[in-house]
Design goal:
This protein is mostly helical and about 160 residues long. It is built from six helices and two strands, in the order αβααβααα. A two-stranded parallel sheet has the order 1-2. Helix 3 crosses helix 6 and helix 4 runs antiparallel to helix 6. The termini are far apart. This is DUF4259 domain-containing protein. It holds the Pfam family DUF4259. It comes from Lysinibacillus zambalensis.
Length: about 160
């Protein structure tokens, strides 16, 4: 894990999600908005997520956290990532309940420390052993609560 901070976008794998999204926008965004469901499906096809939630992998977890962080960043600023290059084209993200549930399921499984085949979820094990465990865990809680709030809001 190449990380220089505790947030998902402060890691090599998180920036892989940013690179993927930038390429996705360049190749697929025909207007100034994107559909979260389409982004998730494209990420699944490219191996950022497993075929099911039972497939637990560090990359899948960091991908979900990075996607949540990007979405929260958009909610807070109205911009996707740093609004440079391809990102400046995007002025809205259309979300649906299933996409938000998908992200929440990953975040909740990480929070609940659902174990992988080796008995402990790798992302949890790595961060628990770091000096930033409390900050990382707090950030995970923040991402979960923000996405959950948006899902509840979108249902109204």
């Amino acid at each position: 894990m190449g990380a220089w901070g505790y947030k998902p976008l402060e890691s090599d794998e998180g920036l892989d999600v940013v690179d993927f999204l930038e390429n996705y926008i360049q190749n697929n965004a025909e207007s100034n908005h994107i559909e979260l469901s389409e982004v998730i499906n494209a990420m699944k096809r490219e191996g950022f997520f497993g075929k099911s939630f039972d497939e637990i992998d560090f990359l899948f977890d960091i991908s979900a956290m990075a996607l949540a962080e990007l979405y929260v960043m958009y909610l807070d600023t109205g911009k996707l990532y740093d609004a440079e290059d391809e990102f400046e084209k995007i002025h809205s993200i259309n979300v649906d309940e299933e996409s938000l549930k998908f992200i929440l399921r990953y975040l909740n499984d990480i929070r609940a420390e659902v174990p992988d085949a080796d008995g402990i979820r790798e992302i949890v094990e790595l961060w628990r052993e770091s000096e930033c465990w409390i900050e990382w865990k707090s950030n995970l809680e923040l991402l979960f609560s923000r996405v959950e709030k948006e899902m509840i809001h979108s249902l109204k």
